[in-house]
Design a protein that fits this description.
CATH topology of the largest domain: Immunoglobulin-like
Number of domains: 2
Radius of gyration: 30 Å
Structural class: alpha+beta
Strand content: 25-35%
Largest sheet: 5 strands, antiparallel
CATH class of the largest domain: Mainly Beta
Number of helices: 3
Order of helices and strands: HHEEEEHEEEE
Shape: flat
Helix content: 40-55%
Number of strands: 8
Distance between the termini: 102 Å
Length: about 230
């Protein structure tokens, strides 16, 4: 039979001090790593803010140039009929460009000043404009707000809820807009994306609500859904 012998562990004071020193070192390293991480995050947010401000400055400069070009066209409009028609077309194009850039500028400013809205995807600036009894122009803006703004793919769903012959009906955007072949829409953007088009309403269909849902391309079920009453812009 083997004889069991007790094992004696010698206590050394220096060994305990080493363990205490290692624990203190770990706490110090963790503290400085946290400080470094917070500093990196603040630097990224500041850099993103500066990029947005530079983009706003660039759009403002472009707007000033377009408006100056439009003034020059107006000053030179006292010409023959053919040139006058060309001038009119140039004016329409310039006014459209100015309107689009002015809208971009407003959205960038809103994004820069928005400190209260929650992070993630959202829908804003929804409006409807009636063109005739069966055609309606729609427009809305998909936005994202994250700590790291980067180009991302998003799926968008748009449904029009209404009544036809007294029965509730839900129609997809692809059923009312011939330019949209399938749903969902796949859109890519960093800050925002303006979605617009023309709806052709079927006979006897009376819409009362629009539902827009967004989700990131890699998500399977999570949807951000917002409802908007069917109301024409005055």
């Amino acid at each position: 039979m083997r004889e069991e012998r007790p094992v004696v562990v010698t206590y050394r004071r220096g060994q305990r001090l080493r363990w205490i020193g290692l624990a203190i070192s770990a706490v110090i390293v963790t503290f400085f790593v946290g400080r470094f991480w917070d500093g990196q995050k603040s630097t990224e947010l500041l850099a993103e803010k500066i990029r947005l401000e530079n983009k706003i400055d660039a759009i403002e400069s472009e707007l000033m140039l377009r408006e100056e070009q439009l003034r020059n066209v107006l000053l030179s409009s006292e010409v023959d009929q053919v040139a006058l028609e060309n001038t009119r077309q140039q004016m329409v194009i310039m006014q459209r460009q100015i309107h689009m850039r002015d809208e971009d500028l407003r959205l960038y400013r809103d994004l820069l000043q928005d400190n209260d809205s929650p992070s993630g995807l959202s829908v804003s600036d929804f409006n409807l404009q009636r063109l005739d009894p069966r055609r309606v122009r729609y427009r809305w803006v998909a936005r994202q707000k994250n700590s790291k703004m980067r180009l991302l793919s998003v799926y968008a769903y748009m449904e029009i809820h209404g009544k036809r012959d007294g029965t509730n009906v839900v129609l997809s955007l692809s059923e009312l807009n011939e330019q949209v072949k399938t749903m969902p829409l796949k859109i890519e953007f960093k800050y925002f994306s303006i979605q617009q088009g023309i709806l052709r309403l079927p006979d006897n269909f009376e819409p009362y609500n629009v539902r827009i849902s967004l989700k990131y391309a890699w998500e399977t079920e999570k949807l951000i859904t917002q409802d908007f009453a069917w109301k024409y812009e005055v």
